[in-house]
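Quick one, T. Sequence first:
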Amino acid sequence: MAGAESTAQLVAWLGFVLALVFGYVANKTSFCTMGAVSDVVNMSEWGRMRAWLLAIAVAILGTGALVQLGLLDINQTYYTRATFHWLAALVGGLAFGVGMTLAGGCGQRTLVRLGGGNLKSVVVFLFLGYSALVSMNGVFRIFSDTVLRADLFTIQLDHMQTLPHLMGMTDPTSHMLIAAAIALAILVFVFASKEFRATPDNIVAGLVVGLVVVGGWYVTGKLGLTENEYMEMAYVGTDSKLAESMTFVGPLAYTMDLWAYWNDKRVTFGVASVFGVVIGSFLYSMFNRTFRWEYFNSPQDMFRHLVGAALMGYGGVTAMGCTIGQGVTGVSTLALGSFLVLFGIIAGAAVTMKIQYYLLMREA
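Structure tokens:
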């Protein structure tokens, strides 16, 4: 038991360190997934989108290598389970995409901005976390369970929902080959741009975010696999009791839960990553003198952020992830649901941006 507790603490501390690096680099390079979509939709600028795609490619390749080397059991994640709630994945992704646009950034960007002194992000943090908690265990879950996860909108597979398994290729080598092929295709597209190759910040952002996700899989999937109090091998230090990596909606809910029930809860990998991102971003802003207080411009601005935060909390829990949690971490497992959520997030954000632009032009 003592061994399991010490391992859980190690997993949490390493999650904090990985997230610290994430937060520092994300602040330095202005890595922002909502900004990536906005740049493409509004300016046809693909720099930050290519950074996001680079992170995805690195994560896919690195995760595939962990699977091939026997350092990660891809079966033991909540992304790859055989039950495929396709409507929940799509609706959750769309809701999250709309929400992050209204709130001015996704979960990880909220934490990065919070570390830089943005008071808007304090409000988004609290409402996103509470909405996620209510969607996970409260009244918001009723609609998701009774409608979005109904049998009519659920596909029960005989195997994991990863692309290799759907193709009938179940061994680790096949997974690695497919991961390498997908990652290579993405890398060719990313580095085909001369302009992108000339932007070190975007390259660093993509590499670091991807490697942090791979590091998270190793920490929870290898180091976190230990003998529990029942003398069984189990994953410790994570909220799901499975292998996890970076994600920033569920952990916000668990952070709220931890604050409310401190004596009965423990700091997990996910909760530690929340604080790691904020502190990493704060350190960068202090070292480089970019820390500054920011606040709402108007009551309407605050209202948009509140609605956006609530939608992100609900959408992130319903879709089981965010732009990082599903868009990088989930996709790195090659899970079908993760690709669907990623599509939903981008579509929801893009449509919302178009509507915002149309309304702005009408007012002008």
